[in-house]
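Design review, sub-item: ligand-bound model
Attendees: FS, YL, KQ
YL presented the inputs for the ribulose-5-phosphate complex:
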Amino acid sequence: MSGGEQKPERYYVGVDVGTGSVRAALVDQSGVLLAFADQPIKKWEPQFNHHEQSSEDIWAACCVVTKKVVQGIDLNQIRGLGFDATCSLVVLDKQFRPLPVNHEEDSHRNVIMWLDHRAVSQVNRINETKHSVLQYVGGVMSVEMQAPKLLWLKENLRETCWDKAGHFFDLPDFLSWKATGVTARSLCSLVCKWTYSAERGWDDSFWKMIGLEDFVADNYSKIGNQVLPPGASLGNGLTPEAARDLGLLPGIAVAASLIDAHAGGLGVIGADVKGHGLVCEGQPVTSRLAVICGTSSCHMGISKDPIFVPGVWGPYFSAMVPGFWLNEGGQSVTGKLIDHMVEGHAAFPELQVKATARCQSVYAYLNSHLDLIKKAQPVGFLTVDLHVWPDFHGNRSPLADLTLKGMVTGLKLSQDLDDLAILYLATVQAIALGTRFIIEAMEAAGHSISTLFLCGGLSKNPLFVQMHADITGMPVVLSQEVESVLVGAAILGACASGDFASVQVCWGESRGPRQ
Ligand SMILES: Nc1ncnc2c1ncn2[C@@H]1O[C@H](COP(=O)(O)OP(=O)(O)O)[C@@H](O)[C@H]1O
Ligand SMILES: O=C(CO)[C@H](O)[C@H](O)COP(=O)(O)O
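KQ shared the predicted structure:
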């Protein structure tokens, strides 16, 4: 954010709810992050492919981290609050109390997480309809979107959940409601995950065709019939109750939210790259691809006109950058896959001991171990006879096939630290090759991408970044501000406060590339 004539002592709070943790940041009007805090959140996997969370646990974590980042600050200087979150489904009853999304009737677990694949039969039936809304999700709806999950609830938890439900929220919208009492939904979540069209609104025929005509009958009150652009100011701002919870003052501006990948995209895609000799300098912003790499990776490319890319979500109008169409490629598990491979290996306990002894993360240790064993050749050559196919949780893009599974070829009997390091490298390479596969599909459909802008937890891993550059053949830009997703969330708060006219105005020099 470059504030021009704004006074320097104006602050914004961004809250980012990822899959594994909640983070908050205090950001000034130049986009500089002044304080950071994080807090893990609970996850349940009651059966294979069922992933659940608790909206109360998530809100409690939001309160802990927000209180931490504003410690010692004059609260009157905090002008706005923005949330981003994973696109998980939150279910509340008519009095806004949590409802169980499980057979155990545990109402604490009232969130079906984005990576939950329980609704396979439902999504297959939805895709068989070939309804025109599917054109705007890459031609095939993902089991990770909300319509199949809603249908699953109706078909499987009719009495305990569906009939009692009063409100179905995307997690980013739940958070903005919790902060303000306003049930308006963000255009971002409704367009990207719920089949809403920025131009045409809800399509009654879709909901009737898939057996969820209930929503049409009550004029979409349960899933949202007031829709606002991300960054729009909600109601009267923070309610007194939420202000107490968060340790902020009532009435500060709260923004309509973004999905986490979109906040990351917003945080990096507009970076000022002048003077860094990058190929994208002087090229339109549409030549950039933001890749947000956390538990999953999301590949966000924007265009002036709609581009239909088979197997890549979108095109979504104004869902990330106002006035631009968005295509969103993705890999459902990337950070989670790396963790799965590393933690499941027989040499993991040895790795932990050795990394701890050096006060390093296991990834930093593995990266230096690869450097040790690579001998004269570049590190990438260590995997000439070991290969990973990374679709352990299906393929989101560009194959859009949730039935795909993972694969490793070239395994030997030895299970020492060298093997673990090489398996880790092969996994990182497979993920980078997946990104190249997505870029090729986007380019074949009309995108022209020259530069990658990476953010998210995996962008802290130099090997991951290098492999993306080597394998795609494109320069990879990292923002000066490592926590770019949080900058995106804070931009929403800055926009809602009225200090900035739009989310693009917040893009500025302070968020240029790292040197
Ligand atoms: N310092 C680090 N070095 C290497 N990898 C990291 C680091 N920090 C996080 N990661 C990776 O990033 C992933 C989590 O990213 P994060 O953005 O925190 O996830 P989420 O937003 O989904 O909660 C982890 O699975 C881990 O593999
Ligand atoms: O579908 C998505 C965005 O549209 C994301 O994959 C989902 O929100 C999870 O994000 P993360 O990997 O950062 O936890």
